[in-house]
Structure formats: structure tokens, C-alpha cells
Specification:
By secondary structure, this protein is an alpha/beta fold. It folds into 3 domains: 3-153, Alpha-D-Glucose-1,6-Bisphosphate, Chain A, domain 3 (3-Layer(aba) Sandwich); 157-258, Alpha-D-Glucose-1,6-Bisphosphate, Chain A, domain 3 (3-Layer(aba) Sandwich); 373-453, 2-Layer Sandwich (TATA-Binding Protein), CATH 3.30.310. The chain has helices at 21-35, 50-63, 76-86, 122-130, 143-147, 155-163, 185-192, 225-233, 261-275, 289-297, 309-319, 344-354, 360-369, 385-396, 438-453, and strands at residues 11-14, 39-44, 67-73, 90-94, 103-110, 149-151, 175-179, 199-202, 238-242, 249-252, 258-259, 280-283, 301-304, 323-325, 331-333, 339-340, 373-374, 378-381, 402-404, 409-412, 416-422, 428-435. The strands form 4 sheets. The chain has a 6-stranded mixed sheet with strand order 1-5-4-2-3-6, with helices on both faces. Helix 1 crosses helix 2, helix 1 packs across helix 4 and helix 9 (261-275) runs parallel beside helix 10 (289-297).
């Protein structure tokens, strides 16, 4: 087994050279040894290799005499729902999220859908699995295995949970373009919008583990061109897209303009503060001013924490935070078991726009785009991440208004700030700059890139 498939938050590798059925069996067995669950929820995404990996994992769990709740083909946030909503002891999904079609992997949770990351047991699971020298020649499920499997359709309960986050009776007759990127979101949206007046222009709708248009990740700019164009051509009110495992949600204005996850975090934060006066919203350190200002303007407070779902979920539980968001378009909800979900932002956006007289582009311009100028996340390959962060810190810290090392380094001045952090999984440094003017942002972005790339 290749230990490199164990990442900071999940398992990911190329099938079958880096992860295969033998590995899935050993990893599932190791999960059971580590978590010691009374039953395990198991689901999978739409990838072509998922059914056989899932079968091996189910065999591993039932071979230990442990019951499996088989929830079928699911989004990652449906895993969180299944474990937490029904009170199961833990679970995992065979998924490689937004990675290309040749990848597969797994995401794990324990009771209450608390995440298992490198800090909370994933590397221990790795070590147990690596020590397992057994070889399984047949992954067929025996009568004994089958007796321990309960198939459970969770879609109705899941959809009912999503509906608690918005008042569907307020929805206007919108036309939207929606792109689930050949993942499972399309099926869920069909159910979610049944009997509503929302007209959906469907793009890449049917599940297809071949991902015929490439990597199913809307954060890649070229993956956004198709939906942007369709929004304009159809005169839609807005566009919405998901990654393949549907736990991230991305929005586009009626002009086809992509909206950064940073600004969606601020907008959803405003909605939650209006619903829950005095509440706290949480965010990562990459871009912060819009969120901090929204919190102040709406009588709430904000907390900055390290990027990454495991850190965010832990902090949200600790501080009882109502809502959290990441620039990467992961959005977290106290009333969704402190977990992230890809459909809740969508229904909240439908309700929000139903109460507004302005278009989404007008709202974004007035609230954010004419006040906060951002670089977007710029990734650079470097030989030594720590040295580059140290160089930037040495240059800018002495004159700075504030220096924060929650995640990498964030350095703030009166009219601009930046965050520089290393990737958890590769020799890449990530830069985000925000400023009070476009010119200032571009000037400082270029200045920092020169330091990073020289």
C-alpha cells in the first residue's frame, strides 16, 4: 500500500495503481479497529471504480462482524447527514471529490459526523492498514456478510433537512442554470425543486463517472466558461455549480460573472446574522475584510481559524458558531451538525434573491465588488515553502498594522493585506491579496509574486 494516498483530510490516489480493492479492504478494516464502531455507514460517489472499492470495504467491515448501513451513491454531505441524523457510530464514503476520473479515495467520520483527519486519527488508520499483511483473493459477499448489510435510502430525509434552511413559499419564478458536473447533485436538485416554479437549465446533469468534460472542479477557471455562457444566453437569474461530490457550491451572476467563495461567505453570514442577532460567523484567514465588516454592520462577531474542514468543524463546535465559510466554497452550518453542505447555500440564495429587487450582479457590486479588491488564490510551485513565507514576513512585518500566523502568515496594512500559506499536500505556496483599490491590490500582488517566484 502506498502511504502517500493518506492526505491531511482524506485518502486520494489513482485507481488501481495507487489504491485498489485490496487497499480498500485493509483501510476499512483499519477504520473499524481504530474507531471501534457498532455500525458503519458506507456510501460512494459516481466514479467508475467506486462500486468495486465499496464492495471490498463492505466486506472488510462485515468480516469484522460489524453492521453496514449501505446508503448507495451519495454526495459527501449526505454521508455527514446519514451518520449524524440517525445517530450512527461512524462512516465513510468512497470518493475522490473533485479529482480527475482516474482517482478514487475515501472520506471518514466518526459519531456525530466528527471528521477524521491527519490530526484526529487518519494517520493511525494508515499505520494499522500498512501493518496488515493479509491478502484477500475474493471480495464476493457471503451469506454471513449479507446478513450484516442494511440498505437505506436517505434521500427524502436529506431533502427535508435542506428545506429547513429556506422558506420555499417565498421563492420567485426564477430561471437558473445549474451544473452538477456529472456528479450526484443533479438527482438531489430534481427532488429538492419538485413542485416549485424554478426553471432549471440543466448542464452536465446525468451522473457519469467518466467526467467527459474533464476534472469536475468549478474552481478551475476554464471549467466555468460553459456555465457563464449559458447563463447569459438563457437570460437566467443566476448560475450555480457543484463539484462532483457536491459538498461545495459556486455561484454566477446573471451576467455570468463568477462570485468568489469569500463573498458568498460574507453574504450568507449577513443572512444568518439577520436570522440570529448577535451570532458569530467563522472564516479562514485567506481573505477577511468583507466578512469582518458584515459581522460588525449586523451586530455579530467573527472568528478566524485555520483553513481546512477538520479545523473549522472543531472550532465551530467549541464556540457554538452558527455559520462558517471558506474561500474554497465549503460552507458549514451549526444546524447541519456543524458540517459543510452544498445545497443549503443554493436554497438560501433562492430565498435571499426572492426578497431583493436588484439583480445578483447589482447586489454583489454594491455590497462587495466596489469595496474589496481581491487577487484570487494564486498558486506557485516552490522548492521551500517555509523559506518563502519567512522572506515575505521579514520584508512586510516591520511596517505592518497586524501580523497573524493562524495559517501561514497574514500581514495587514491600512489599505491592503495578504495571506501566504503552504499547501497541505504538495510543494505549492498559495497567495491571496486584498486591498481597498484595484491598483493597490495589483501592485502588491505583483510585488509578492516577485519574491515568491524569484
Amino acid at each position: 500500500m502506498n502511504p502517500g494516498i493518506f492526505k491531511a483530510y482524506d485518502i486520494r490516489g489513482i485507481y488501481p495503481s495507487e489504491i485498489n480493492e485490496q487497499d480498500a479492504y485493509k483501510i476499512a478494516k483499519a477504520y473499524c479497529k481504530f474507531v471501534k464502531p457498532s455500525e458503519v455507514v458506507i456510501g460512494s460517489d459516481v466514479r467508475l471504480s467506486s462500486p468495486s472499492l465499496k464492495k471490498a470495504a463492505i466486506k472488510a467491515v462485515t468480516d469484522q462482524g460489524i453492521k453496514v448501513i449501505d446508503v448507495g451513491e451519495i454526495s459527501t454531505d449526505m454521508l455527514y447527514f446519514a451518520v449524524a441524523n440517525y445517530g450512527y457510530a461512524g462512516g465513510f464514503s468512497l470518493t475522490a471529490s473533485h479529482n480527475p476520473k482516474e482517482y478514487n479515495g475515501a472520506k471518514f467520520v466518526r459519531e456525530e459526523s466528527r471528521p477524521i483527519s491527519s490530526d484526529t486519527g487518519l494517520f493511525e488508520i494508515r499505520d494499522i492498514a500498512m501493518q496488515d499483511t493479509s491478502e484477500i483473493s475474493n471480495f464476493e459477499l457471503t451469506e454471513e456478510n449479507l446478513k450484516l448489510i442494511e440498505k437505506k435510502n436517505i434521500m427524502d430525509d436529506y431533502i427535508n433537512k435542506i428545506k429547513t434552511f429556506a422558506d420555499f413559499s417565498k421563492f420567485k419564478k426564477f430561471k437558473i442554470v445549474a451544473n452538477p458536473n456529472f456528479g450526484v447533485a443533479g438527482r438531489a436538485i430534481d427532488r429538492l425543486l419538485e413542485n416549485s416554479d424554478i426553471e432549471v437549465v440543466k448542464l452536465n446533469w446525468e451522473s457519469d463517472g467518466n467526467f467527459p468534460k474533464g476534472r469536475p472542479d468549478p474552481l478551475i477557471p476554464e471549467n466555468r466558461e460553459e456555465i457563464s455562457k449559458l447563463v447569459v444566453e438563457n437570460g437566467a437569474d443566476f448560475g450555480v455549480a457543484w463539484d462532483a461530490d457536491a459538498d461545495r457550491c459556486f455561484f454566477f451572476t446573471e451576467k455570468g460573472e463568477f462570485i468568489e467563495g469569500y463573498f458568498i461567505t460574507a453574504l450568507l453570514g449577513k443572512i444568518f446574522l439577520e436570522r440570529t442577532p448577535g451570532a458569530t460567523i467563522l472564516h479562514d484567514p485567506r481573505l477577511v475584510w468583507a466578512i469582518q465588516d458584515i459581522a460588525k454592520e449586523n451586530g455579530g462577531s467573527d472568528i478566524m481559524t485555520k483553513s481546512g474542514h477538520a479545523f473549522i468543524k472543531e472550532r465551530m463546535r467549541k464556540e457554538n458558531v452558527v455559520f462558517g465559510g471558506e474561500m474554497s466554497a465549503h460552507y458549514y452550518f451549526k444546524d447541519y451538525f456543524f458540517c459543510d453542505n452544498g445545497l443549503i447555500p443554493f436554497v438560501m440564495m433562492l430565498e435571499f434573491l426572492s426578497t431583493e429587487k436588484k439583480t445578483l450582479s447589482e447586489i454583489m457590486t454594491e455590497m462587495f465588488w466596489n469595496k474589496y479588491f481581491v487577487s484570487g488564490e494564486i498558486n506557485s510551485e516552490v522548492s521551500d515553502v517555509k523559506t518563502k513565507i519567512s522572506e515575505a514576513k521579514s520584508k512586510y512585518s516591520p511596517q505592518a498594522k497586524n501580523v497573524d500566523e493562524t495559517d501561514g502568515v497574514s500581514i495587514e496594512f491600512e489599505d491592503w493585506r495578504f495571506n501566504l500559506r503552504g499547501s497541505n499536500t504538495e510543494p505549492v505556496i498559495r497567495l491571496n491579496v486584498e486591498a481597498k483599490t484595484k491598483e493597490r491590490m495589483e501592485e502588491k500582488r505583483d510585488e509578492l509574486l516577485e519574491i515568491i517566484r524569484k
